[in-house]
Amino acid sequence: MRNIFVRGIDENVYREVKARAALLGITLSEVVNMALKEWLKKPVIIENSGRDVRRIVDRLVDEYLAKGVKGYIVVFNRGERHIVCRSLDEAIDSIRKAYVEEKIYSAVIREIKPRPVKFLEIGGGMLEIRGEI
Hints:
This protein is α+β, with helices and mostly antiparallel strands. The chain has two domains: 11-40, no CATH class; 42-133, no CATH class. It has four helices and five strands; from the N terminus they run αααββαβββ. A three-stranded antiparallel beta sheet has the order 2-1-3, sandwiched between helices. A two-stranded antiparallel ribbon has the order 4-5. A hairpin with a 2-residue loop joins β4 and β5 (126-130).
């Protein structure tokens, strides 16, 4: 173990956590370690990770649609690699595993299906947005 100093901690939260830890008979360091370990179990999923990643994901989805593939696509590290999963749970598990193994820092999950048609209708002094944007 090594000593690490963290700045920018909310003082009220710090006091409350320290008091609860004392009531439980554990140190603040133990509480922080437990919280960090729980946080690491959660996958990093970034939905809006930039236009370039969206273009990569859209291109890959189009390719798999053309081949008749169904499921979910997971794109890692801004498009460096990808996998296709049969279910959303499998996609999340694959991200969790890669993250724990420190192989990724970000991922995008998208279902392999056509996107709804999007269009903007302007006229007569009105603006109407239809579809998913």
